[in-house]
Amino acid sequence: MRDIDLTTLIGLISTFISLLLAFFIFSVESKNKISNKLFATFLILNAIEFSGWFSSLLFDEPNNILVAKSQLSYLTMPVFYLYILSVCYSDFKLKWQHLWHFLPYVIANLIMIPRFYLGSTAEKIKLYDNFNELYETVFAHISLHLQSTLYIIAGFIVLKRARKIFVENYSSNTIETYKWLFQLLLFTATLYFVAIIKNIFKYFGERNSFDTAQNILGIVVLWVVCWYVLKALRYPNLFSGVDSKTKLINDLIEESKEGKSLISNKEVENLISFMEAEKPYLNPSLTIRNLSEEIKMNSRDLSILINQNLNQHFFDFVNEYRIKEAMKILKNPAKKEFTVLEILYEVGFNSKSSFNTAFKKYTGFTPTQFKKKELHLSS
Q: What is the pTM of this model?
């Protein structure tokens, strides 16, 4: 039996954790069932990839199982990209056209048929003796790195648009979940970048450099897998997406130029008066559609009013009122016993981190610092 080195040990641990987390996510009750299944599938594909670091402990010689296992790498990034779409857009559904994402997997398997799938064990052993120089191996390295790069870029493009839709139309703390999705994509990009460096050393560097890069990749993989676990436990329901059919403010403004009515100063005054009198911002799930119904105004016009006339995104517009309300509570001697957590829930937030971020952005202080400052001034 082969000795268990650092890379083998990391592969065993990472595979076990990934499979355990995948099982946990499959079992979690959530409205976002498609997202959960896609993320769990992504984790399982990763686990299969990590198992390559200890496959020699399971198989004494090359076989078709190992060949088929290696080709599953072509499914990892397409599944991850579909997961990003499902998280960002609440109306996402798997469709037949999504099967095009799996075309590289089919092509890669076709290329492996003549010499690998159809070859005898003896022929496979001979091929593996010169594995890195084979055209199948070179094709796999180039195509996989190209595929991962394109999907990572596409993922960042999707996130950028989804975030714009969110801040222009929603006020809840769902933005926090987009932050960790961005981190997830960023960490995945880092993993693939390290993998590219590792393979460069494989062909053009010394063996010691390749082994070092392999160990670094393994450590990064283990760290990211543990991070998956912490995040999944903290956000078991994952995300609430936005409607992909929601238009961006620039599109709405273009429509308004095509004969649509302009926003009057009276409508701006009515909105501000309504916000101050009725305090709809205390609803943590307030959306621009909800607010437009309450003030009996077209949601398109309301979006233009806030974004163009008041020069704010809906997210910032609502949070400004929430922060002002929080400041009143913090300044009120009768409510000095209120904790920061009680205050944030009372003014419409439901996340401490989003409350702290918004409060500091508006006041320059954290809620705790502001409270201490007010107590000092009043004493």
A: 0.77
